[in-house]
Automatic annotation (TrEMBL):
GO BP terms: electron transport chain
Originating species: Halapricum desulfuricans
Biased composition (Acidic residues): 75-85
Keywords for the protein's UniProt record, in alphabetical order: 2Fe-2S, Electron transport, Iron, Iron-sulfur, Metal-binding, Transport
NCBIfam families: fdx_plant
Record protein name field: Ferredoxin
InterPro entries in UniProt: 2Fe-2S_ferredoxin-like_sf, 2Fe-2S_ferredoxin-type, Beta-grasp_dom_sf, Fd_pln
Domain spans labelled 2Fe-2S ferredoxin-type: 98-190
Region of interest: Disordered: 46-85
Keyword Iron: yes
Cofactor(s) this protein requires: [2Fe-2S] cluster
Family to which the UniProt record says this protein belongs: Belongs to the 2Fe2S plant-type ferredoxin family.
Gene that encodes the chain: fdx5
GO MF terms held by the record: 2 iron, 2 sulfur cluster binding; electron transfer activity; metal ion binding
Length: 190
């Protein structure tokens, strides 16, 4: 009896396998791959920036510096742009030197007023963080002890730090030229 049941079961399973083998599919086919289109549409919706890298606040986060406050006129914006334009370090004729203490490195060095804090640190073979080297990200940011950064450095360009952040002592070492002695902690971001 058991053998008969087993035999019938085996035959039944074989029959099912044969039927499934010859059965036709549902006719379903994978749709066209649209992932590329989706990526292109997303890319088109992101505003263009000069330097797309992780810390760039122009990509997805934070308000762009120099944004027009509600009620501000076009004339006011132009004035702000002029103020933020920075200065040309190559136009410096009277080269002066300042004592800059690099707190993380534990050393004080002389830095010329036509040399950036980043370049001065690199000349010492210190591992200084940076990315764009144009004042357009935050990678090179450092913190100056003892007050507003503008009392100690001039930025040749600054597309990233706000007035408040500079008032708190933050600077972009890749575009910051010393105008006084100070102590800085590199690799410090607001
Ligand atoms: S490295 Fe990007 S702002 Fe200095």
């Amino acid at each position: 009896m058991v053998q008969t049941v087993g035999l019938l079961l085996g035959l039944g399973l074989t029959l099912v396998a044969v039927v499934l083998h010859f059965a036709r599919g549902t006719g379903w086919q994978a749709g066209e791959d649209i992932s590329r289109d989706v990526l292109e549409q997303r890319a088109a919706s992101v505003p263009e920036t000069d330097f797309p890298e992780p810390y760039n606040r122009g990509v997805g986060g934070g308000a762009p510096t120099g944004a027009i406050e509600s009620g501000a006129s076009e004339g006011e914006l132009e004035e702000t742009d002029d103020e933020d334009a920075g200065f040309d370090p190559e136009a410096i004729e009277d080269v002066e030197y300042y004592e800059i203490e690099f707190a993380n490195e534990g050393e004080t060095i002389e830095v010329a007023n036509n040399e950036t804090i980043l370049e001065a640190g690199e000349d010492e073979d210190w591992d200084m963080p940076y990315s764009c080297r144009q004042g357009q990200c935050l990678s090179c940011a450092g913190h100056i002890e003892g007050g507003p950064a503008e009392e100690f450095v001039r930025h040749s360009n600054n597309d990233t730090l706000s007035e408040e952040e500079m008032d708190d002592g933050y600077c972009l070492t890749c575009v910051a030229y010393p105008t006084a002695d100070f102590t800085i902690k590199t690799a410090e971001q607001p």
